Amino acid sequence: MSLNLTGVTLTYPDGDSRLTALDRVTLDVPLGSLTAVIGPSGSGKSSLLAVAATLITPDAGVVTIDGITTTGMTRAELTDLRRHKIGIVFQQPSLLPSLTAVEQLQVMAQIDGRSPAKARGRAMELLDDVGLTAEAGRRPHQLSGGQRQRVNIARALMNDPTVLLVDEPTSALDHDRGAAIIGLITRLTHRQATATVLVTHDRAHLTSVDQVAEVHDGHLRLPLKPTHSNG
């Protein structure tokens, strides 16, 4: 397994007590597979993603990324792990307005010390993978919402992560563009052999994912069958 959460519990302060966001959650995501995590607002989906991304340390349980157990790692070690092992697609693309699509990707590799030539070559490969070769020289204001989200996804893959974490990628898109983005993430997961977790409230586009889990009041139910339903 490339991403493994075992017995993960996470709580937050809530007045004089604590609110349980995740309650003994266990999840295995193999390389080359896509797990969709669904559930209502406030159910614990975002908390699960943050723990998997090592952005939050759980109260209990173990998080393992590509065979590396994160327990006891320093902040610097976790930052390095995220840089090399984890790609994160945030809900809002947050692209830099002054950079072109290809430069959005290049800067990620250059931060990691790759040469500009190698960075550009890899960036162009990924833009081709997401169908944006012709838009490589365009800036965010020249791209549609769906195109900006594609750049966001390509950027997350720039450093060849083994784990890809995707937060509500279709929330600002219409039905057809949302379906296209989910299809793209599924194809890239299989092609890039990442262990992918997709957090979403939308059940309509999940027929192609490998497994579906539901979070409710901090508890994880797995597996569920992919469904066409919007319910």
Structural write-up:
The chain has helices spanning 45-52, 75-85, 101-111, 116-129, 145-156, 175-192; strands spanning 3-14, 17-29, 33-38, 60-65, 68-69, 86-89, 163-167, 195-199, 211-216, 219-224. The protein has a single domain (3-224), classed as 3-Layer(aba) Sandwich (Rossmann fold). 32% of the residues lie in helices and 28% in strands. It is built from six helices and ten strands; from the N terminus they run βββαββαβαααβαβββ. It starts with a strand and ends in a 7-residue tail after the last strand. 40% of the residues are buried. With 231 residues, it is of the alpha/beta class. β7, α6 (175-192) and β8 form a beta-alpha-beta unit. α3 (101-111) packs across α4 and α3 packs parallel to α5. The chain has a six-stranded mixed sheet. A four-stranded antiparallel sheet has the order 2-1-4-5.
Instruction: Please give the number of β-strands.
Output: 10
Based on secondary structure, the structural category is alpha/beta
Percent helix, as a range, is 25-40%
- Domain module count: 1
| Strand order, largest beta sheet | 6-7-8-3-9-10
- The overall average pLDDT, rounded, is 90
Q: What does the radius of gyration come to?
A: 17 Å
The parts where pLDDT drops under 50 for at least 5 residues are 227-231
Helix count, per DSSP? 6
Q: What's the CATH class label?
A: Alpha Beta
Strand content: 25-35%
Which superfamily, in CATH terms, is the homologous superfamily? P-loop containing nucleotide triphosphate hydrolases
Alpha-carbon distance between the two ends: 31 Å
Order of SSEs, N→C? EEEHEEHEHHHEHEEE
**Reported CATH architecture:** 3-Layer(aba) Sandwich
Biggest pleated sheet = 6 strands, mixed
Shape: globular
Question: If you consult CATH, what is the topology?
Answer: Rossmann fold
Quaternary state of this entry equals: single chain
Keywords: ATP-binding, Nucleotide-binding, Transport
Pfam families: ABC_tran (PF00005)
GO molecular function: ATP binding; ATP hydrolysis activity; transmembrane transporter activity
Domain ABC transporter: 3-231
